[in-house]
Amino acid sequence: MKFILDEAGGGHAIQHYDRGEFTVSGVVYRENLLVMPDQVVPRWHDAGFAELASGDFQRLAGFAPEIIILGTGANQHFPAPALTLPLMEARIGLEVMDTAAACRTYNILMSEGRRVAAALLTIEP
Fold first, then answer.
1. pTM of the predicted model, to two decimals?
2. What are phi and psi of 82, to 5 degrees?
3. Distance between CA 100 and CA 115 in Å, rounded?
4. How far apart are CA 55 and CA 32, in angstroms?
5. In angstroms, how far is the first alpha carbon of the chain from the final one?
6. Rounded CA separation 4/67 (Å)
7. Three-class SS string for 38-94?
8. Residue 114 and residue 123: Cα distance in Å, rounded?
9. Residue 18: alpha-carbon gap to chain centroid
């Protein structure tokens, strides 16, 4: 699904997503991806939702966004609260949704100038 024709001017925008890939600022990625207005981090997590661990959320907290949008693949899945404790301790908000909704939400918040991060798990092809 295509979202926008070009960059949003305020940072890295998600231009397109499809099963197994994302296009961010003209670059195609075929892996889990962390997208922030000022940087893109490929392979922020090397496995699927079931393998998420507290350390993954600790790593995300280190980027210090005000909110993280977690895209959990084709369907919405909520991580166990114990896993997300590093975010709560750092006072970072977490919204969980399917990856398609996470891409759309990230673009909106990023265009508003928010310090947002989209931690996206691929939608398997």
1. 0.91
2. -60, -30
3. 20
4. 16
5. 14
6. 22
7. CEEEECCCCCCHHHCCHHHHHHHHCCCCCEEEEECCCCCCCCCCCCCHHHHHCCCEE
8. 25
9. 14
> Whats the size of the chain, residue-wise?
125
HSE of 118 in the Cβ direction (CA atoms, 13 Å)? 32
Token reading at 26: 């003209």
Pick from 61, 62, 28: which is nearest to 42 by CA? 28
The pLDDT tens digits for 22-69 are: 999 999 999 999 999 999 999 999 999 999 999 999 999 999 999 999
Do 54 and 82 touch, CB atoms closer than 8 A? yes
Rg (CA), the chain: 13
Query: Which amino acid, 124?
Result: E
DSSP secondary structure letter of residue 106: H
Structure tokens at 44: 């922020």
65-106 residue pLDDT tens: 999 999 999 999 999 999 999 999 999 999 999 999 999 999
Q: Is 83 exposed, middle or buried (0-12, 13-18, 19+ CB in 10 A)?
A: middle
